[in-house]
Amino acid sequence: GLYITGTYFSYTRAAILSMVLAVIIYFVIKLRLVVPSIMITILIDVTGVSALLYNNNYMRMNPVYERTISHQRFDKLISATYKMEDISTMERVYRWVAGVQMIKDKPLMGFGPGTFYASYGGYTVSSFQTYVSNNPDNSTVHNYYLLTFIEQGLFGFLIFVSLCIAVLVIGERTYHRTRDARDKIIVMAAMLSFCIILLLNTINDMIETDKVGPFFFLSMA
Q: Which of 9, 112, 137, 189 is the most buried (most CB within 10 A)?
């Protein structure tokens, strides 16, 4: 109860949404629906990305520079998010668009580890620019899957995604094979922790940070 309350008052959209999705994932694991869920997720992702890239449809998502600002009230932040007027959301889109351009340039082997910040400037599209696009924090693309593709190419991306899928499939199998009630709780906790990190990394790139990385690999182990 304390953690849920703290997460709510952090006003962190991704963390709040991940808590809700964790409840759904709990039942997905209980009902042995991990494999169908993975297949549906891949289908949705491929369809969505294809639709955005077709005829450069993503260009229609460019923000209005003057109205794309930060918001202090949580209700206004949520409203601005779906209107594409929240600066943190649209700055992510700005970097994702640059990331896609980078992948087109070096699709198979990528640019190399730790190279996004030094390389992405020449691939940005000015119509997606926001007030914080000068990137004073030297942060990266804010999507770990995209970051892996950019820096390690198609092969690195497929290795990482395959590893994550293997953990999910083996984790579900382990949960249902485990007989001890306490061990089942531990396996489920590790699975939910792992899934929450996977969800958060769709809009962040935190696996290589000291706050999130250890939980990712400990849950996997």
A: 112
